[in-house]
Amino acid sequence: MKNLCPPLFTNHKERFIFFLFLLGVLGCTLGFKYYQFHTLKSQKTPQIEARVLLQYTKTRGQKSYFVLKLQSDFGIFYTTSWEDLKNLKNQKVSLCLIFEKISFWDFLNGFYAPSFQLSLLQGEDFRKPIRDFILGQHDTLLMGEYYLALFLSDPLPLEWRELAQSYGIAHIFAISGYHTGILSAMGFLILGFIYAPLHSRYFPYRNRYFDLGLIVLCLLIVYYFLLTQSPSYLRALAMSCLAFFLLFRGLDILRLESFAWSIAILLAFFPSLAFSVGFYFSCLGVLYIFLFFQYFKIPHGFWQKFLYGFMLNASTFFLMGVVVYYFFPPFSPLSLSSLLLTPLFSLYYPLVLLTHFIGLGGLLDSLLLWWVSIETRTITLQPSLYFFIFCNALTILAIFYRYAFFMLFGVNFLYYLYGIYLFLSATQ
Hints:
The protein has 16 helices and seven strands. By secondary structure, the chain is an alpha+beta fold. Helix 1 (12-41) packs parallel to helix 9 (256-269), helix 10 (277-295) packs across helix 11 and helix 15 packs antiparallel against helix 16 (402-427).
């Protein structure tokens, strides 16, 4: 069937004008970021306030020191402290930065700066009551912190990070597009029951799906501020806003051109995303899904659609292989289980949200503690830079040629088999 959706642009002149507009936005955004950078740079040792996102210990020689991941008004950065600090996680602190050697490039990319005069500020995190409510439903801190990571984008405990690496499911613990889709579906389902009778009685002339979509989008924006500006969720939220606009303007959201312009819009408003590996993974994942839709049409039967969904999940899993292992080399054959665990998460996530809402969040703790206690091992699977570039080049070709798509899948599949061979060889 021919696609009757109107194109995003009707000619190259419109594309060029919009491109100039995005360049103007990018210029303004970079100008504001440079103003922030210049303000800090002019002070040499500026005193700032920030919230501690993460605190962990490292050792140099015989001495230990703390590494702090901080979030301020101008972004996320790292510093260290040799003092004997208490747990400052989620606390607001004041500190002086040694900013002299920080370049504007570092400032955009996320930087490390030495600091001194670290002091704790008064006042509690506004999310503390929510944290206490979640932690109070679990007998172990490990499970409490696990759910804080799942619901409030807190750092995932080390034990769960190691498990996520072994099972290849790190993507389901970082609140991003997958979670946004689940939350949107829950919002449509719950609000639909409430709004349907009101719509029939009082607003029959309105587009019910537009109203529900707008309400859900507003709730997702509120959730963003509850997460205190999680970068991965911000990417997903921005893409959701763009998809909502395109969809209700009657435009085809599955066109690759629409996707490309969506990336350009995000980079214009948030140029720091250009340095984000998570943003790169998100864009590649969505692109591979679009390419699967492009080369394999959705069938009509129920079981055919079920198989189609499984093949889509498997295709995306293998296509992401080389690029993921280039940045995160830990490998285990257990990662194949993500083909099952990823779709199951769409059922698990609403369930644990509901159980925590009614105060029964510890219902699955014993099962999850047993799972995280299972010993796993990984090997280092590190693709070369040339192989990484080759797969990215194949990705670009796959946009235009079907054979390149199959070749990219075959290369990644064979590399995964190579990883299994290395893993089995290392265990003998």
